[in-house]
Design goal:
The structure is a single chain. The chain contains 16 helices and no strands. By secondary structure, the chain is mainly alpha-helical. Helix 8 packs antiparallel against helix 9, helix 11 packs parallel to helix 13 and helix 13 packs parallel to helix 15.
Length: 259
């Protein structure tokens, strides 16, 4: 059926006419079919009924259909894109909201991307919130508008995601300051990613230096039993040339693997 869709559109006079067929095809929820459909439909971008077509799909009762709309969003004009995104970003379906977030990876519209992320920053699903820094930490608006909203998230996996993705942040100084705060986190995974990010970020900073107070906090990390976390502290010291006053004594008390 899929290969005949262009002929159907031509025969019926518009892409809007095949909306019931497209929805029926999408109900298979088959990734291969979705992949084949995208180029077939986007070739009709000049069809005057495109916006009505995807708007109708966005009203489907099936989340596999509504999430597909976000893959062919370019069929809509700019104002149409904004309207559809404003609707779908608040969709009751986790799948649709996640797909809405992924749109910002492909858009060059900073204002639109920022609005999408802000609207979903307090989502009830942890996986959505943890996905936010992955798709937006490299954006200019991230530090000012997004980071303050999510950096104190109650779920450690979200904080760990933030700490890991700070290496992409264009505002290096702000990213480093956030990493400093994450190094004191009570969850070892968050500390681990913060230290790894600092190893990458500190050489790129011209103004921030490491003080003894931070080094003491770093040495406190050796109290955690996880070998990977301890190794990250050693990597940090070797990479930065930092010299904690009590480093030798602490290392002497460590297990053979850490030494």
């Amino acid at each position: 059926v899929i290969q005949y869709i262009p002929q159907f559109v031509t025969a019926l006079g518009s892409i809007l006419s095949v909306e019931p067929l497209i929805e029926a095809v999408l109900l298979s929820d088959n990734p291969e079919i979705v992949k084949q459909l995208i180029p077939i439909l986007t070739q009709f971008e000049n069809d005057p009924t495109c916006y009505k077509f995807i708007k109708l799909l966005s009203k489907s009762q099936y989340d596999c259909v509504r999430s597909f709309v976000l893959l062919i969003l370019n069929l809509a004009h700019e104002e149409g894109k904004r309207k559809l995104l404003k609707k779908l970003v608040y969709d009751f379906s986790f799948r649709v909201r996640q797909a809405s977030l992924q749109v910002i990876e492909s858009t060059s519209n900073e204002e639109l991307a920022c609005k999408i992320v802000i609207s979903i920053a307090d989502d009830s699903h942890t996986r959505i919130r943890a996905f936010i820094p992955i798709v937006s930490s490299h954006r200019p608006f991230y530090v000012a508008h997004i980071l303050p909203k999510i950096q104190n998230d109650l779920d450690w996996s979200v904080r760990a995601s933030i700490a890991r993705e700070l290496v992409k942040c264009p505002d290096v100084e702000s990213a480093i300051k956030s990493c400093f705060s994450f190094v004191s986190d009570k969850v070892w995974q968050v500390r681990l990613f913060a230290i790894k990010s600092l190893i990458n970020l500190l050489p790129r900073s011209k103004t921030i230096s490491i003080d003894q107070e931070f080094l003491n906090l770093l040495m406190d990390t050796f109290k955690f039993p996880q070998p990977s976390l301890k190794k990250s502290v050693v990597d940090f010291i070797l990479a930065t040339g930092a010299k904690p006053s009590n480093f030798a004594d602490i290392m002497m008390s460590q297990d053979p693997e850490t030494k």
